[in-house]
Design a protein that fits this description.
The chain is built from four helices and five strands. The chain is α+β, with helices and mostly antiparallel strands. The strands form two sheets. Strands 1-3-2 form a three-stranded mixed β-sheet, with no helix packed on it. Strands 4-5 form a two-stranded antiparallel sheet.
């Protein structure tokens, strides 16, 4: 199995008639719709949606692992809860943000909602309901 993949970045809705076969050292390279490049998930129209979904999933897993430390019944101080957030959660959410920050507001909003939930847990703040 090859580590290399081929992808074409194009505007949404633009179609390519026929993809030509690509080879590297005589081995055929597989065409894909999404690929990962050092921690960033790239898709054909560069919507960043797969990357945002991946970040949300990994962040939710990490918050789940830290959950027992961040509950109201925990003896952990607010200062240490915020420190856990800053060292373990925020870097994962902000990785490659200069690239995807220009993405659609809906994708960025989903990350902002998750960030608010994490901060509420870390600071033991009450849930705000409208």
């Amino acid at each position: 199995m090859s580590k290399s993949t081929a992808i074409i970045f194009a505007r949404a809705g633009r179609r390519f008639i026929q993809r030509r076969p690509v080879t590297l050292f005589g081995e055929p390279i597989q065409w894909v719709g999404t690929t990962r490049y050092p921690g960033v998930t790239l898709d054909t129209p560069l919507t960043w949606s797969p990357h945002i979904d991946q970040v949300r999933k990994r962040t939710a897993q990490r918050v789940g692992m830290l959950g027992p430390l961040l509950t109201r019944k925990s003896d952990l101080s607010v200062r240490n809860g915020v420190l856990l957030y800053k060292k373990l959660i925020r870097p994962m959410m902000y990785y490659a943000s200069p690239a995807w920050r220009s993405d659609a507001r809906t994708h960025v909003r989903r990350l902002q909602v998750l960030q608010s939930k994490c901060l509420r847990l870390a600071t033991v703040a009450p849930l705000v309901r409208k």
